[in-house]
Amino acid sequence: MVAQSLDLVHQHSMVSTRSAEKNLESKVAVANGGDRAAAGRKSGELKGSPMPRRSSARIRALQKAEEEELLARKKAEEVEEKKKCQDEVTVVKGKKRRRKSGGEESVVAEEEAVTSPKKKPAACRKENGNEEPENGVSLAACSNGKVEENGKEESGNVGGGLGEKSDVLKVKETIRLFNKHYLQLVQEEEKRCGKAEAERKAAKNGSKKASKSKKGVLPEDSKNTAKRPDLKAISKMMQNNEILYPVKRIGDIPGIEVGYQFYSRAEMVAVGFHSHWLNGIDFMGQSYAKEYDYELPIAVAIVLSGMYEDDLDNAEEVVYTGQGGHNLTGDKRQIRDQKLERGNLALKNCSDQGLPVRVVRGHESSSSYTGKVYTYDGLYKVVHHWAEKGLSGFTVYKFRLKRLEGQPILTTNQVYFTNGRVPQSLTEIRGLVCEDITGGEEDIPIPVTNLVDDPPIPPTGFKYCKSNKVAKNVKLPLTVTGCKCKGICNDPTTCACALRNGSDFPYVSRDGGRLVEAKDIVFECGPECGCGPGCVNRTSQKGLRYRLEVFKTAKKGWAVRSWDFIPSGAPVCEYTGILGRTEDMDSVLENNYIFEIDCLQTIKGLGGRERRSQDGEVPANLLDKYDQSSESMPEFCIDAGSTGNIARFINHCCEPNLFVQCVLSTHHDLRLARVMLFAADNIPPLQELTYDYGYALDSVLDSNGKIKQMPCYCGASDCRKRLF
DNA sequence: CCAGGTCAGGTGTAT
DNA sequence: ACACCTGACCTGGGA
Q1: What is the per-residue pLDDT for A74?
Q2: Is beta strand A658-664 parallel, antiparallel or unpaired with respect to A522-523?
Q3: Which nucleotide is nearest to A267 if distance is taken from CA to C1'?
């Protein structure tokens, strides 16, 4: 019990004394108990205190984050929102809330119409947060986190005032939007290619085996390969007016701090940081003559990617080769003289007029889905320029750039981006206290490190279990019949499982399966399906894919990070434990590892989460079989207190990089859906993995009906300061 | 198997 | 009309 309560502490990111926390916890548990008693009496009518438990409220917070984002986007005046906070609190307590997805949802106009009456939480959060005193703390925590020991939070959000936070969030949202378009376009391409394949098969009628090898069919269809979904995604964003900063700017871009890492050139375009996905030099042409008095063109941003043979990079000082005369192929050769025009002229003008240029460095890196990372290294000034004969004997223009002073220090890490300090073997791991906490259950071992405690101790008091254990009084529904596909499912028009998902597979095959966007519910193929284990529609069933590590933090107890890059939409892990009845769980005081399966409530719009997909996505007959009582609150939950997997170590964060997704595969009972955690963003190695526990502020009441509060120390730049 | 080669791809800018 | 050079696939040489 003692060990367990120690474990508990980390889960809620608490910093104060343990005994205090423990007290708090028990009170909360009591509140839960009271609530449950009410429900147990014969629920349906939802009396007693409103639902304090974790999962039911989980995504509310995300919703708030998104709404805040929306708000910030539409209006700058957040301050006046404060007053409305009270109303929101009432709304929350009245338990009728809408949820926003784990971040995959776009911030589109129509969304606003739906949620606009409830845009207050943004301000609500601020007010409740009591910024002044706590902000300092969180900043400190934040920079601590940035020192990589705790896994860094987000390269771009180091310190900063209020306005800056929302800028960081804007950037984050824009990148998420980009990723969403990207995955949707990947899906389109995969579909198209699959169709082309099928047609070719049909054309060849009998000879199936021939079509299996790509070579045999290539000459016919050049469209066999996917076409730059990244470029398509930014085109789409331009059409939709979703580029964050569509007008070029001189100097820093709000929300992009020095050290910020882009994972592709297209991401820079999406943000408006660099408006070409191809050009090295982004400059303002004559069209900017009305706004600026400078001699145009002027350069605003350049990308150093080692493409030019004559480049020289000494970190603080760079010699950049102008554009032109390049043979445009992979061998990086100059084949012509460069001229003082376009980008070259723009850099010269910057030099003459003393204007700063944003510098981005491209690096080879395994920590990116493209194998490349682009780091913003700050503002530089062009101190000198000249023309000379380059290595290949042609005239090249050279620009000596010097980094402006007063900017964050360039670390070697940023200049020569490597995998951080990811250990290559067990012997390299510092503070190792357990080689594999899974005890061999998972395909990939999960080491545990502890550089905080003295002596270092591993986590105790639980048993690792990679899949759910079903409590005695819970009966899993019968296995449903599956699809008739053979081998792998690839035709969404015939695969029964795809049809349940709204006539599409929820996943793309790329990178071993990525969820295109957060959905109310994902139907995967199951044991009765005709397809094999390699089917993309079994993405969440394939076990761990990334090398995870449990590590001890100074303030938040245990935490989890990955040594590998995790692309957005990739499955990270399931949340497992004992699958039991919510009412039984509540009798276990102080158990803080309970995850309610609130999928049904979400879909019905009754719980804390907001709908993710459009109406009609979930087959109506699926919802019919549940009676009123099961709607009012989650009937089942997962208790990872004594038995669980890696997910039980993942901390809460108000600005998380994972989101929760319910998945059905063997049966179709929403109340017993599996709970999966997916990457909401592209996650670089060693960044702590977090998801939003989703308590709504002021939704937790103690036994006297008074609002309970618990501080949050996640350290995110827009932390709500309270877990509930 | 990996390194190097190949080529399509979309926008801004100048002609 | 064209420069811009990335990203992902393809190919061929080495292990």
Answers
A1: 45
A2: parallel
A3: C6
Tokens describing residue A682: 């592209």
DSSP-derived secondary structure letter, A403: E
Most confidently modeled of A193-207, A377-391, A569-583? A569-583
> Is the CB of A502 less than 7 A from some atom of nucleic acid strand C?
no
**How many Cβ atoms are within 10 Å of A336's Cβ, its own excluded?**
13
Closest C1' nucleotide to A234's CA: B10
A17/B15 CA-to-C1' distance in Å: 72
Between residue 273 and residue 292 of chain A, the positions with Cβ below 7 Å from nucleic chain C are 276-281
Bases of chain B with protein Cβ within 7 A: 4-15
Smallest CA–C1' separation from A226, nucleotide: C8
Check residue A249 and give its pLDDT: 93
Segment A263-291 mean pLDDT: 92
CA-closest candidate to residue A30, choices A582, A578, A588, A698:
A588
CA→C1' distance for A171 and C15 (Å): 45
Decide: CB of A224 under 7 A of nucleic strand C: yes
Q: Between the CA of A583 and the C1' of B14, what is the distance in angstroms?
A: 72
Question: Is the confidence at residue A703, as pLDDT, over 80?
Answer: no
Whole-number Å distance, CA A423 to C1' B2?
23
The CA-atom distances, in angstroms, between A312 and each of A304, A344, A408 are 10, 16, 22
Looking at residue A136, what is its pLDDT? 27
- Model pTM greater than 0.85? no
Distance A458 CA to C10 C1' (A): 48
Q: What percent of chain A has pLDDT over 90?
A: 35
Identify nearest nucleotide to residue A296 by CA to C1′ distance: B13
Instruction: Give bridge partners of residue A547 from the DSSP assignment.
Output: none
Which residue has its C-alpha nearest to nucleotide C6's C1'? Answer: A278
pLDDT confidence band for A364 (50 / 70 / 90): confident
Backbone angles phi, psi at A5, to 5 degrees: -70, -25
The two counts, helices (H) then strands (E), for chain A are 19, 26
CA atoms within 13 A on the CB side of A84: 13
Q: Report the distance separating Cα A653 and Cα A205, nearest Å.
A: 54
| Cβ atoms within 10 Å of A227's Cβ, excluding its own | 12
Q: List, chain by chain, residues whose CB lies under 7 Å from nucleic acid strand B.
A: A 222, 227-228, 231-232, 234-235, 238, 248, 275-276, 278-279, 283-287, 297, 328-331, 341-342
Angle of the A229-239 helix axis to the A162-203 helix axis, nearest 10: 120
How far apart, in whole angstroms, are the C-alpha atoms of residue A70 and residue A183? Answer: 22
Query: What's the Cα-to-Cα distance from A167 to each of A654, A657, A682, A715, rounded to whole Å?
Result: 16, 17, 18, 17
The phi and psi torsions of A604 (rounded to 5 degrees) equal: -75, -10
**Which residues share a beta bridge with A676?**
A574, A661
Gap from A510 CA to C7 C1', Å = 14
Q: pLDDT at position A716, please?
A: 81
What is the pLDDT averaged over residues A257-286? Answer: 92
Element (H, E) at A550: strand A548-552
CB proximity A218–strand C (7 Å threshold): yes
| The nucleotide closest to A285 (CA, C1' atoms) | B13
Phi, psi values for residue A638, rounded to 5°: -115, 125
Strand partners, A456: none
Distances A207 to A211, A216, A358, A570, A612 between C-alpha atoms, Å: 7, 11, 56, 35, 43
Angle at CA A198, nearest 5°, toward A194 and A199? 120
User: Do residues A618 and A603 make contact, with C-beta atoms less than 8 angstroms apart?
Assistant: yes
Q: Quick one: which residue's CA is nearest to C5's C1'?
A: A278
Residues in chain A: 724
| Beta-bridge partner residues of A326 | A334
